[in-house]
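Appendix C reproduces, verbatim, an entry submitted by the partner laboratory led by Prof. M.T., so that reviewers can inspect both the input and the predicted structure.
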Amino acid sequence: MPPASTTIRIRVRMSARAIDEPHRASSQLELLFDLTFVVAVAAVTAQFAHSIADGHALTGLVPFLQVFFAIWWAWMNFTWFASAYDTDDVAYRLLTMVQMAGVLVLAAGVPAAAEHSDFRIVTLGYLVMRIGLVAQWLRAGLEDPAGRRTALRYAAGLSILQLGWILRFLLAEAGGLPAFADLPSYVGLAILELAVPRWAGGARATNWHPHHIAERYGLFTIILLGESVLAASRGVERALEADEISSPFIVIAVCGLVLLFALWWLYFLIESGEGLHDRRHRSWLWGYGHYGIFAALAALGAGLEVAVEQSGHDIAASPLALGYAVAIPVAVYLAALWAVHALVAEPVIRPAAVVVCVTGILLLPLASRPIGVAGVVAAITAGCVLLVAVTIATTAVRARAGVRRPEPEPSSSGVS
């Protein structure tokens, strides 16, 4: 049998890929790129779990959201660029590796950012990522005349904002940025970051592939669900250090897995590729709306980790705080998921069911003293499982009704 031939793409002229390219799927390079985000998300989730366990959940929430925004936005920028311009040649691979290195540097700086508000390493990691990304956009502008203006706008916008992040950091280090202005300056720069795609795409939209984008978002959702499993396993490990397997420990561990499975089920009830194909103008809202989904899953991992851990030994956080550490992320996830689904398709989850489920979940932690944290987690899980069951049942009923609906009789003029 002759050896398989290997094709090495040394250099491919960068041009916009077709939006209807058949069988477009995530490449091996994209999957490898995602692995660096596994490290970054694990770092930020672990730090938020420490804040919750120490009774400082609210204090740790802002650093968590700030660092997670940086992680999410870096992933977003790479994903949408790759959907439009992935050439998979040597230069593209090397610049992707530079971005991967930046993610790992950012992940290394998460503990200092969360514990001491020291963003030096995080800022450095983001700078490294931006160097690789801006170089990709400059290459696209040079080699793709049709998309040159859009590509150069992206490169300019990202470069200017990166200078803004560095200036903000230098001012903070030198004491020139008052404490009260720290968060507003961050929010202002983040809003400008979100505005870059709208501004750059105003010249000419990039040729992103709807089914490829839907698959990439689904894969990142699975990564975050996996991070929640990992976080819960860390809690299991610490709980087992007490050398006692209690009934609350078993309940939380089992319900945590069932809860994550239910949330996975709900996300993949809709195949978003077709919806994005038909409603491309809503893609930016759909993409941005996933920040709530992704951040909620990461926060849920931290909440489950501490909930499992407290079943083995005492921690500083109160049962009420632990209940809300699980309830709030689940509620945010469900609300954001319904909104995102509604942007590109008719939601299969009924709005009334979402409202009832979210309301019940947010009220459950109030009963944490009589039923315990394990009881709260079990009840939240039961609510999500019930939502899955109700959605499947109503979808089946509507499908049968659609099949049985008689075709209208043709009129005498032949127009139905």
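Residues 26-207 form one domain. Additional entries are available on request from the coordinating office.
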